[in-house]
Amino acid sequence: MNTQPVVSVRARVIAVHKTRWEIQADDGTTLEAIAGRDLEQDLPVVGDWVTATCHEVDTIARITTIEPRRSFLVRKRPGDVEHDAVVEQPIAANIDFALLTMADDDFNVRRLERYLTLAWDSGATPVIVLTKADLTSPEVLELMVSDAQSVSLGIQTITTSSVTGQGLAELREVLVPGSCAIVLGSSGVGKSSLLNALAGTDLQTVSHVRQFDGKGRHTTTSRRLVELPWGAYLVDTPGLRELQIWGDEQSLSHSFADVQAIAADCRFSDCTHNTEPGCAVQEAVSQGTLPAERLDSWRRLDRELAYLARKTDGAAARAERQRWKAIAKQQRAIKRDR
Ligand code: GDP
Ligand code: ZN
Fold it and tell me: What pLDDT score was predicted for residue 314?
């Protein structure tokens, strides 16, 4: 029988491996941990605050509880569409900022809209980071910034270069001490380089397990919380190559505030902005005040959300949808009364 006293600690999950977690206790000690039986349905992710018990300092701890999450980044598991299954893939918890990275050769406004939806939905604040600025002409960079701003409505956009150091000070200001950020973006966009530039050291050797996929590209396989010199934290994540949104219509209304504002003037409250008479959205498109692609994107996302609502926990998704409809109705009432 083990007579060692059981010690209980509060700790943060700083790394996730397949079935092992690395946790850091409040006093700074790092422990290896496994998940307790009660957690099987909801495993800890990077950024989680947990309670763990252990018998002695050098044995493996057992995570017993996860504290309520302030924000939670989840995406649909990629490559599952043909199996007709929608599976949540939790990425990180308690994230303050989602740095949405794109470079010139990978810039895509529609994808940016998806990233924004994903970020809003998690509860984190999105920040758009246009990477490898040293490889892009100032003119093109300017176009990218204005394109990004046209779909993000007031979200901070920072252009960076890990080579020249451009934009890093600006980014450092966003990442205040104690805050936690995650870098999202395609493989090769410069996420690791940005992390290294911010950390001022090559983190790859200490914090990344690199493997090569079938096409010879390296992929980051382990996720880890890295403390930056000024006390902010960063999570690295594998490239979101097959990002599919996982959201509700509230986050949709966030990224499509422009469409929603115009839609409040449609004659019918359930207007689908197709061929209905008195459709303010169609009117705005024909007058050129709303780009036609914005409406297309909105439709695509709306369809995707409807699909997800059918596929997943219908009740919760439907409730959210109802709630959102109520908000839209309220908006119309406010406009009418003005
Ligand atoms: P990740 O897959 O998103 O982590 O991308 P990496 O950080 O590994 O960068 C991919 C490639 O782009 C590497 O060859 C980097 O050297 C290069 N790279 C990353 N950031 C920059 C940058 O700011 N400027 C230039 N010129 N190259 C960069
Ligand atoms: Zn309409």
Answer: 54
Q: What is the pLDDT of residue 113?
A: 87
Nearest CA owner, ligand 1 atom 11: 188
What's the confidence (pLDDT) of residue 80? Answer: 47
Identity of residue 256 = F
The parts of the chain modelled with pLDDT lower than 50 are: 78-81, 205-221, 239-247
The answer, as to whether pTM is greater than 0.90, is no
In the chain, ranges of CATH 2.40.50.140 domains: 6-66
Measured torsion, CA atoms of residues 108, 110, 111, 112, in degrees rounded to the nearest 10:
80
* Contact partners, residue 112, CB within 8 Å, separation at least 6: 100, 102, 128, 148, 151, 152
Which residues touch 163 (CB under 8 Å, ≥6 apart)?
Answer: 132, 134
What's residue 186's pLDDT?
A: 78
**pLDDT at residue 239, as a whole number:** 44
What is the secondary structure of 167-219 as a DSSP string? THHHHHHHS-TT-EEEEE--TTSSHHHHHHHHHTS--HHHH--EEE-TTS-EE
How far from the centroid of its chain's Cα atoms is residue 279's Cα?
A: 33
| Cα–ligand 2 centroid distance for 291 (angstroms) | 15
Containing H/E element for 120?
Answer: helix 109-122
Distance 164 CA to ligand 2 centre (A): 47
Ligand nearest to the CA of 197: 1
Q: Superfamily assignment of 72-236 in CATH?
A: P-loop containing nucleotide triphosphate hydrolases (3.40.50.300)
The amino acid that residue 110 corresponds to is R
The secondary structure of the chain in percent helix, strand, coil, rounded to multiples of 5, reads: 40, 25, 40
Which residues lie with the beta carbon below 6 Å from any ligand 1 atom?
131-132, 134-135, 161-163, 187-193, 239
Atom of ligand 1 nearest to the CA of 183: 3
- Mention every residue, 6+ apart, whose C-beta is less than 8 A from residue 252: 117, 298, 301, 302, 305, 324
> For position 109, what pLDDT does the model report?
87
